[in-house]
Fold this sequence. Notes:
Elements: H1 2-28, H2 36-43, H3 50-85, H4 97-112, H5 121-146, E1 147-148, E2 151-152, H6 154-177, H7 181-191, H8 200-219, H9 221-227, H10 231-236, H11 241-263, H12 269-281, H13 285-309, H14 318-337
Helix pairs in contact: 1-13, 3-8, 3-11, 3-12, 3-13, 4-5, 4-6, 4-11, 5-6, 5-8, 5-11, 6-7, 8-11, 12-13, 13-14
Amino acid sequence: MPEKKSRFRLLLTVNILLIVAAVYISLTNGVFDISVTDVVRTLLRIEPSADHDLVIFDFRLPRIVIAALVGFGLGIAGAVIQGITRNGLADPGILGINAGAGAAIVAFMFFFQGKFTGTSWFSIMAMPLFGLTGGLLAAALIYLFAWRKGTLDPQRLILVGIAIGSGLGAVSLFLSLKMDANDFEMATVWLTGSIWNANWTHIAGMLPWLILLSPVLLRKAQVLDLMQLGEDSVKSLGVSVEKERNYLLLSSIGIVSACVSVSGSIGFVGLMAPHIAKRLAGIAHRYVLPLSGTIGMLMVVAADFIAKTVFIPVELPVGIVIAIIGVPYFFYLLSRARPM
């Protein structure tokens, strides 16, 4: 046990150092390169330059912060969803939760774009609230069709999630086609997973959800471990399986919806990060959850830097960069899960 704890601390430290390195590279490189000395002087307000303030505080830093928060949220939520379903192929995107939150936010863009322009908390929180509503709707539909003989069937869950995700994706496409040209372009870029329009208001809108719900998931690590034993075994230990599952699923949906509201539908982070964490630290969720979150942070921050620099001046959506890696990895996992 002490050896596992020491290994976990080492892995977490290495991961944090890699995140710091990715943040440094993303802050100092781009269309307008800035030296590390200028970055430090700007952040510490030592003879600040208007140009450096604009690049760092208005463009790069909000984008990096959102990328890190989204990566952490999707990573930890993906680990929880895989634990709830006991299915290594489950993640928020594949289960349709991303699509549900995305459809609700496209509906928000379609009906209310430009109407919530103030700085009140309601204006800031409107999109995450719409995303949460869509995520809950998708989860309710998944539960409705995947519920079998009083339990949630993990095998049906994947098939139902894919079907519902496809249907809600069609709803998003239909609404986006009804928009005017400018709103359609914004919705299309957003649906592919992009954080190009990041700002501090978006951070203020999503941060409360992560602060409130992430500790809930981390505290339930032991319950997730018990859920891997099977429902009958868990019930014999006095655990209310359905109550705990609903608690964990709703918390995960809240986090995913907040992430989708500011970044669009970025897939595969919630699939890959938990698998990488389990390969590095084992299956104990008290180690897997924090590692999944930090691995997700590293993935999205690095992918966002690649997306904005590889084809300068053209910028790719970060969701496409992650999908280039995620799709082959998903097929690899699918082949490993195939019965002999």
